[in-house]
Design a protein that fits this description.
The structure is a single chain. The chain is an alpha+beta fold. The relative contact order is 0.12. Helices cover 13% and strands 31% of the residues.
Length: 503
């Protein structure tokens, strides 16, 4: 066998082999036409053969992974990168700690090559010199996508290193911007040394805010969910079979339809009532107050919402029917806020819900036309309002501004072309959250993907005007992204592209 590493010269990689026999199922899993029992089953015939097959399988996986070398070998996945003065300086804990603040993912290496304790170092402006009291600790946990024992230790795979951030108090106000000023940006870059060779990550951005902070906690440390899924964004389905049926303590009341006829008015009314119920029972509007639990231990959304088993590690389905009855599909986003008790409320907090019509589009939030390139023709930047304080989500476009179906916004009050009132003053997805030490706020929308009258586009454009299913056609997988829009904790970016939105 011979291998050529063209990646070092910015060309492809090559693997050649003098024999093809060991790539054939016949020689691996047996020849059913053989008269010899052992040859009929191949390697699975014996325990020693099964062990050898695992080694061969690891070789196949390693070869394929090496040939398809990922562009990002070592990179950040952010758990929380915004920190407000209220939650840090005024925290009753003198040393507030944020577990799972960020993760470093290493791709395409075997556990044996990486070793149990590789050297990882940090550089950049996000440090204790610029932010007195800041401490980065870790890795606090190391997880392997496949495993690090036995034959798995020789399989190339994703390895995750978890880190926590602590602010050792008392924290001075100096690193934090003055009230009303924009967030103060900081960068952090990581380097991992493997067998004497340094691998450098792209930088991650962290922001210090002048006051309260609103954020998602995407990774559940106990569940260990996939990094592209979030414990604070949930999809669920209900199937009403009669009028005034209750789901998640909220009645579904038909207005013009019935169980076998789609009733979009009832669908929108239900999600508005559900958001109100969640905020009034486990959110900031709860009478007498509500102390949010540690969702790493117990999360009420796991049991309140329907069919949440596997929600943090698998895809969600939004099917149109259950038998003859119509399904209604929804998403709920939980926004967390930490501030000092009695501090000023956070007003005008919005959550945008956007569905990317294929997993191949870049789900970064591009909010400047200058970021458009020939390599990224499906621009996702459009929003009403200012760049740092968008007021309303718009459909995705191409570089000329024509709606092309690359992303579709969804709402809790009406379809896109009926001027939904979600983000009006006192709108269901435009909320004012009171200042307190820790609270939750819930936002949501009706995932109205099966309604032929829910259309996007311009009939005079090259793409036309079409219903949701037209834009989704041919894509078996779609990405739902929730974006927090808040003036005093904006989604900042460099060069028009936000790598880690909504944290």
């Amino acid at each position: 066998m011979a291998a050529y590493d063209g990646a070092t010269a910015n060309v492809g990689r090559i693997v050649t082999d003098s024999s093809f026999y060991h790539f054939l199922d016949l020689n691996l899993l047996g020849d059913l036409c053989s008269l010899i029992p052992a040859k009929q089953q191949g390697f699975p015939f014996s325990a020693s053969g099964q062990a050898a097959l695992r080694e061969i399988s690891a070789f196949f996986v390693n070869t394929a992974t090496w040939l398809a070398w990922p562009e990002q070998q070592f990179y950040f996945v952010i758990g929380k990168n915004n920190y407000g003065l209220d939650e840090v300086a005024d925290n009753p804990n003198p040393n507030p700690t944020y577990p799972g603040a960020f993760y470093l993912f290493l791709e395409g290496r075997t556990p044996n090559v990486v070793g149990a304790s590789p050297t990882i170092t940090f550089s950049g402006s996000f440090n204790s010199t610029n932010i007195p009291g800041l401490r980065i600790t870790g890795p606090t946990a190391v997880t392997y996508d496949i495993g690090n024992t036995g034959a798995n230790a020789n399989v190339m795979q994703r390895i995750c290193f978890e880190y926590q951030i602590t602010f050792n108090g008392p924290i001075a106000d100096d690193p934090f911007p003055a009230p009303g000023n924009p967030p103060a940006p900081f960068a952090l870059q990581a380097t991992i040394n493997i067998q004497g060779k340094d691998i450098l990550s792209l930088p991650a951005e962290f922001f210090l805010l002048s006051g309260e902070d609103l954020y998602f906690t995407n990774i559940n440390d106990s569940a260990g969910n996939r990094p592209y899924l979030s414990q604070d964004l949930r999809v669920f389905t209900i199937t009403p079979t009669k009028n005034n049926q209750t789901f998640v303590n909220t009645k579904f009341t038909f207005q013009i339809g019935n169980p076998t006829k789609l009733d979009t008015a009832a669908g929108y009314a239900y999600i508005q009532n559900l958001i109100a119920w969640l905020n009034s029972n486990i959110g900031y509007l709860t009478s007498g107050g509500f102390t949010p639990p540690d969702t790493n231990v117990s999360d009420p959304l796991d049991t309140l919402l329907l069919d949440q088993n596997g929600a943090l590690n698998g895809n969600s389905s939004v099917t149109p029917f259950t038998g003859p009855n119509i399904n209604y599909n929804y998403a709920i986003a939980r926004v967390r806020m930490k501030s000092s008790s009695g501090s000023a409320p956070a007003s005008g907090v919005k959550v945008f819900f956007r569905l990317f019509t294929t997993q191949t589009f870049d789900t970064d939030f591009i909010n400047s036309t200058a970021a458009t390139t020939s390599a990224d023709p499906n621009v996702t930047y459009p929003s009403d309002g200012s760049l740092l304080n968008p007021s309303f989500p718009l459909p995705g476009t191409d570089s000329s501004g024509a709606i092309n179906g690359c992303l579709l916004p969804f709402f809790a009050t009406d379809n896109w072309d009926n001027s939904p009132a979600d983000y009006n003053t006192l709108g269901v997805n435009n909320q004012t959250i009171p200042g307190r030490e820790y609270t939750w706020a819930f936002f949501g929308y009706f995932l109205n993907v099966n309604n032929a009258t829910n259309e996007f586009g311009d009939p005079t454009s090259p793409y036309g005007r079409n219903p949701v299913q037209y834009w989704l056609a041919g894509s078996a997988h779609n990405c739902l992204v929730a974006q927090i829009a808040y003036e005093f904790a904006p989604i900042e970016n460099a060069g028009g592209v936000i790598k880690y939105p909504g944290c």
